[in-house]
Write a structure and sequence with these properties.
Blueprint (H helix, E strand, L loop, with lengths): L2 H53 L9 H6 L2 E7 L4 E3 L11 H9 L4 E6 L5 E11 L2 E10 L1 H53 L12 H54 L4 H29 L9 E4 H15 L4 E5 L4 E4 L1 H18 L5 E7 L2 E5 L32 H11 L3 E6 L5 E6 L6 H8 L1
Parallel strand pairs: 7-9
Antiparallel strand pairs: 1-2, 1-5, 3-4, 4-5, 6-8, 9-10, 10-12, 11-12
Helix pairs in contact: 1-4, 4-5, 5-6, 7-8, 8-9
């Protein structure tokens, strides 16, 4: 059973219960009101004619059946000894019971209830006590309930008919409303099934601006992110395949030359050594590329558990690596404590990549400057710098400017830096240094452990 049908059934069941209780309550209250009014009317009538009957109990005060029939009233006199007197000429008789006799004997109380007359018609009777010449009587007045019950029957038909019509209309409205309310959920379910079976990431239509509409918007955002991730994955595979083809082709050519030389021995030792050096260099470049690809493959993986650490320590370690890789360069380093929340290893690698880039392009005897000030880390060099046309693409994967095409590298280092900094709620930008070289400005927000924040605030 669909959710729309369940909603319709629930609404219909609720309406059935509400209509039934309301109709029954209305009918019972109307019945009680009509009977109470009839009892009061019969009591007033009995009270009004009781003095006349008390003056002549044998003839019921001169009241005849014909006069009573005009008002559809029944009159009976019950004596304390059980003798019953009815109006002369009455065609319909009503049998009294112990309740009326008890009123006559005790002389107190008013009894009202419903009995059946000799013709099988329900009659409402009321008995009141009175005394005549020391004899106790109960004067019983009654009235035909046919009209009253017809009114109650008509009311019951109206209530039931109205209730049934209301239930049907409510069920239809509930079904329509349920289908309308669950339509976004059906669209979402179909979209999920479609994505599972066809891998089609077409967004679904937004039908409303309520919670279900927000759910559809979130689902469309998820599809968009998934589509972008898929495109990035395809692009990464295509770019990686292109970048891997060059070192593999070179290595294959060199290996084939070495294998052919095993039989011909035509290559001199110097040429063989150059080929082996080239193979070693290609293996190093290949290993570096594989390492960068592994790093990028973790882009969508859950980040390591963040910890508080001093960024200056990570920068200092990266500078030590840079000194070893550029022994003929000068390093002007200024660091200061800067507590951040994140993964120290990945941030250290990001700074190392920036320093590797500076070492690669700096001339012999040049200076690499590393400055930490506030929330920023600035790395600059005295190399040829970055062309204005290359600045918008400098952090793209596998992007290499014309100046960098003949230098070693994979074209992934700066992309890894940008991803690492962004994942730590920071940003990085590239520009030209005052000396003309490249300058990278990296922003990482300062973080304080909760305990220290509360201590500082106090």
């Amino acid at each position: 059973m669909t959710m729309g049908r369940r909603v319709s059934l629930l609404v219909s069941a609720s309406v059935v219960v509400a209509v039934a209780l309301t109709s029954l309550s209305a009918w019972l209250m109307t019945r009680i009101s009509l009977y109470s009014e009839l009892d009061e009317q019969l009591t007033r009538m009995a009270t009004t004619i009781s003095p006349s009957v008390a003056a002549d109990p044998q003839n019921l005060g001169g009241l005849e059946a014909s006069s009573l029939a005009a008002t559809n009233t029944t009159l009976i006199l019950v004596r304390a000894d059980g003798q019953v007197t009815t109006a002369p000429g009455a065609e319909v008789t009503v049998t009294t019971g112990p309740q009326e006799l008890a009123v006559a004997r005790t002389g107190i109380g008013v009894k009202a209830h419903t009995v059946i007359d000799s013709q099988g018609v329900p009659v409402r009777i009321v008995a009141i006590p009175f005394t005549s010449d020391g004899v106790h009587y109960a004067l019983v007045t009654g009235q035909d309930l046919t009209g009253t019950r017809a009114t109650l029957g008509s009311l019951w038909i109206v209530l039931v008919g109205t209730g049934v019509v209301g239930i049907v209309l409510t069920a239809i409205a509930g079904y329509v409303a349920g289908n309308s309310a669950t339509s976004p959920l059906r669209d979402l379910s179909l979209a999920v099934h479609n994505v599972t079976t066809t891998e089609d990431l077409t967004p679904i239509r937004i039908r409303s601006h309520d919670e279900l509409g927000d759910l559809a918007v979130s689902f469309n955002n998820m599809l968009s992110s998934l589509s972008n991730s898929r495109e990035r994955q395809k692009q990464l595979i295509a770019d990686a395949s292109h970048e891997l083809r060059t070192p593999l082709t070179s290595m294959r050519t060199n290996v084939e030359l070495l294998m052919a030389d095993q039989q011909s021995h035509m290559l001199p030792d110097e040429a063989r050594g150059e080929i082996l050096d080239d193979v070693a260099a290609q293996l190093g470049e290949f290993s570096s590329l594989i390492g960068d690809l592994v790093q990028l493959s973790r882009e969508d993986a859950p980040p390591p558990r963040p910890e508080y650490f001093d960024l200056s320590d990570a920068v200092s370690k990266a500078v030590e690596r840079g000194r070893r890789r550029g022994p003929n360069l000068n390093f002007d380093v200024h660091v200061e404590p800067h507590l951040v929340l994140g993964d120290e290893a990945t941030l250290e690698r990001a700074v190392t990549n920036l320093l590797d880039n500076a070492v690669k392009f700096s001339p012999a005897g040049g200076t690499v400057t590393v400055t930490m000030e506030g929330d920023t880390v600035v790395v600059s060099d005295e190399g040829p710098g970055i062309a204005e046309a290359d600045l918008p693409h400098i952090f793209d994967r596998f992007y290499r400017s014309d100046r960098a095409r003949n230098t070693p590298g994979t074209g992934l280092g700066l992309s890894i830096v940008a991803h690492t900094v962004t994942s730590h709620q920071g940003w990085i930008k590239a520009s030209r240094a005052p000396s003309g070289g490249a300058m990278f400005t990296m922003y990482l927000p300062r973080a304080e452990p909760p305990g220290e924040e509360s201590t500082a605030s106090s």
